[in-house]
Amino acid sequence: MKKGLERAVKAGGGLLIGFINGFFGGGGGMLCVPLLEKILHEPTKKAHATAILIILPISIASAVMYIINGYFSLSGTLSVSAGVVGGGITGALLLKKLPSFVIGIIFAVIMIAVGIKLAVF
């Protein structure tokens, strides 16, 4: 991919990922991973790890806007925080140990399951 086109894809992809994450309160990583893997040809594990780092500032910015606008639940945050931290650590450890094709299968299954849930429920 030519440098100019690559920069445009990164900028456009970044805008889309940021918009999705801000609009829905999450989900940007589900777009970021395929962008990094399929379009920018990053290895699977690198794409997943990079997506997490990319989503961090987007999530912070979105959270600030939600707090400013009164869309924040302290009790909800506190009730799921331990699970989120534990799950994040577990997921990062598994990413390191599992083969890339297994990570791809797990990611695809989750994407399909979420799509079905959104379409049906």
Describe this structure in words.
This protein has helices at residues 3-24, 28-39, 44-68, 74-97, 100-120. It is mainly α and 121 residues long. The mean pLDDT is 90.
Q: How many β strands by DSSP?
A: 0
Principal-axis shape equals globular
Measured by DSSP, the beta-strand proportion falls in under 5%
- Extract low-pLDDT stretches: none
Oligomer: single chain
Q: What is the helix content?
A: over 70%
The separation of the N and C termini measures 40 Å
Can you summarize the main beta sheet? none
Order of H and E elements: HHHHH
- Cα gyration radius (Å): 16 Å
Short key terms for the protein model shown above:
5 helices, 86% helix, 121 residues
Structure at a glance:
By secondary structure, this protein is mostly helical. Helices cover 86% and strands 0% of the residues.
Topology:
Elements: H1 3-24, H2 28-39, H3 44-68, H4 74-97, H5 100-120
